[in-house]
């Protein structure tokens, strides 16, 4: 068993407490299901929210799902001009037997665009 990180993101339609919690529960559940995780395999989850999501701390959604033992923290994501608004992201540290390339990150509700169009820097990565 090793410790790995798994990422995820979702976009909310409105900054209303129950809506943010619903979308965050969906995100946490999808990450857990995709990686065959149970409560004991989650060490910690870092949640970020853009500054336009302020009605509730997203970590509450994880607690509502019964994740009472993992360390949870919420922080505000830095503001970047032109960045996608109304986002909740997570990075979860997990214990797993999955290889790094088997980890299933989850980008819901249009957030898959966050991983598109990142230009490589020639000569920085191995094989360049």
Automatic annotation (TrEMBL):
Organism: Kineosporia succinea
Keywords in alphabetical order: Amino-acid biosynthesis, Aromatic amino acid biosynthesis, Isomerase
EC number, UniProt record: 5.4.99.5
Cross-referenced InterPro entries: Chorismate_mutase_AroH, RutC-like_sf
GO molecular-function terms, A-Z: chorismate mutase activity
Matches recorded under Gene3D superfamilies: RutC-like
Listed name of the protein: chorismate mutase
Alphabetized NCBIfam families for the sequence: CM_mono_aroH
Catalysed reactions, as listed in the record: chorismate = prephenate
Enzyme class at the top of the EC tree: isomerase
Pfam families assigned to the protein according to its UniProt record, in alphabetical order: CM_1
């Amino acid at each position: 068993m090793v410790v790995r990180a798994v990422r995820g993101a979702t976009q909310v339609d409105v900054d209303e407490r129950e809506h943010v919690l619903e979308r965050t529960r969906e995100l946490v559940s999808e990450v857990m299901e995709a990686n065959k995780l149970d409560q004991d395999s989650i060490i910690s989850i870092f949640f970020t929210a853009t500054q336009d999501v302020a009605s509730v701390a997203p970590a509450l959604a994880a607690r509502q799902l019964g994740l009472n033992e993992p360390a949870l923290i919420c922080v505000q994501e830095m503001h970047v001009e032109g960045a996608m608004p109304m986002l909740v992201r997570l990075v979860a540290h997990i214990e797993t037997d999955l290889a790094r390339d088997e980890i299933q990150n989850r980008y819901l509700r249009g957030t898959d665009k966050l991983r598109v169009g990142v230009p490589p820097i020639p000569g920085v990565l191995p094989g360049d």
